[in-house]
Amino acid sequence: MTPTTYTEHDRQIWEEELEEFVPARVFDAHIHLFNPQHMGQGTGRTWSHADLETLQSWAQRLYPGRETHFLVLGSPAPGIDVQAHNDWAIQQVSQDSQSRMNRLVTPGCNVEDIRHDAVTHGFIGLKPYRLFSVTGDVAQCRIHEFLPHEQMELANELGLWVTMHLSRHHGCADEHNLEDLAEFTTRRYPNIKWILAHCARSFTYWPIRQAIDRLRDMPNIWYDLSAVTDVRPFITLFSKENTKRLFFGSDGVDSTYFHGQYVALGRAWQSLDTSRFDLQFPHCDGRPILAIYEQLLSMKQAAEIAELSADDIEDIFWRNATEALM
Ligand SMILES: [Zn+2]
Question: Residue 97 Cα, ligand 1 centroid: separation in angstroms?
Answer without folding.
Answer: 22
